[in-house]
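During the no-cost extension, the postdoctoral fellow (Dr. R.K.) reprocessed legacy sequence entries with the updated structure-token encoder. One reprocessed record is reproduced below for audit purposes.
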Amino acid sequence: MTTTNGQHATDDQATKSAAKKPKSKGAKKRAAPSWTLTEAAIAFLESLRAARKSESTVSAYAADLDLATEVLGAETPIAALTPADVERFNASQQVTTTKSGRAKAQPTIDRSRRVLRLALTFAEQQGAIEAVPIEAKPRAKKDVPLSQREAIGNDDARLYPAAADDDPAQITYASTGEPVTE
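Re-encoded structure tokens follow.
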């Protein structure tokens, strides 16, 4: 096939239809799954495996999600979870103490809480719940990124005082200390 300017059309150009309908973004709404806590945990763990996370990470997260199903109920619909339920999990004996009754290390407690939050966030991303049932806590100053912090006590006028109008700038040689003349 030859075009009007004498060039040959490629197979792609010859077989394309004249007008294509643009794909609509988000036109189809998918039905929200009604997951139980166990189903959400399994789906989250499968997503970790698909993301090629290490087996030790997946098994540690699975143990933490087992705690969540033990405290909150394995067959509890995740859409029915409330912030009070999440707080009950965070303060539960299974999260804060070992089986022998000793207090768990704070990083272990934090991981258990974080894993539940991550699993619920994953469920929200998948459309299983409207919003994660975790109350937002105000961030401490140390949690605010440096780029968003206010500079305190860093006044340029005090650090670099302006020279007087009648005092011209003096440049001196560092090696000799003599003023530079032009």
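The chain has seven helices and no strands. Confidence is low (pLDDT under 50) at residues 14-19, 24-29. The remaining legacy entries will be reprocessed before the final report is submitted.
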